[in-house]
């Protein structure tokens, strides 16, 4: 039987997703991912080639790490429908690295019988360095009753739920988990466009150490 | 600096047939053993018509796009900086999805050693009725080759 499903009514802003520690990345996995994805870029599978272009070894494609973080979401949001999933690649993942995927509910809202949760996501390596950060929007049934109604062709349960990041800002700031280091949204233009002011002011956020990563991708336009 | 005229250039739609074996191998490569990607019965009991594909599965889709052609430059190296997906619905085994690729933006961004060329490439997947299934956006740091192709 399928695992217990997740319903909107049970989720609170600030809820943490159970962390997912993946098995260490190895070269066999890189080959398998190359085969499965059809991306045979030699920097991910050919050690000699990777060294010839100045890399210490082959490294994991960003999309593999994004897939791991996707597993974190799908494992948690059973019964939910992923609507949006965005990431920024920050640091390379090498063979031997262990990726730990983490996430936290940043917002929830519902209107017209459709219910959504917003999640902040990030992945760290075994040294605790940020390798990727992102966000996702999941659509959920309000409750088991809502699911049963909709599956039998009835109208959904309608509860108007304004974005909680606005209404509960004070409560969230007092929550014990709220001050933990969360990857900053600052400068993430895509997020700013998408979420406007809603998710930015709720939780005091520290700058992640990996801001100083040497990849050009981690550098942001200084305004 | 990349040619701004590249914006809007697109490749024709390419058919991708979503096979169960391809979904299984993709999920295995990630190390994700959620039965929803493997087990037909489990997927149906979970409310889906059949097994579904992991969220990043569209990364395995083919498109007719040749980035050198779309961007109009020879490419020395590409760095994948950001990736995003919007989903209209899950992707199911048996789906026939037409994927087209277009250049949605090119611009410059200050980098460590001078300006970096950024290209945003958008893939769009539609079913046979023309309904949107997903959109995918890749943000790439492009280092053009010295000589033009």
From TrEMBL, chain B:
Residues 6-134 form the FAS1-like dehydratase domain. CDD domains: R_hydratase_like. InterPro entries: FAS1-like_DH_region, HadA-like, HotDog_dom_sf. It comes from Pseudomyxococcus hansupus. This is FAS1-like dehydratase domain-containing protein. It comes from the Bacteria. Pfam families: FAS1_DH_region (PF13452). SUPFAM superfamilies: Thioesterase/thiol ester dehydrase-isomerase.
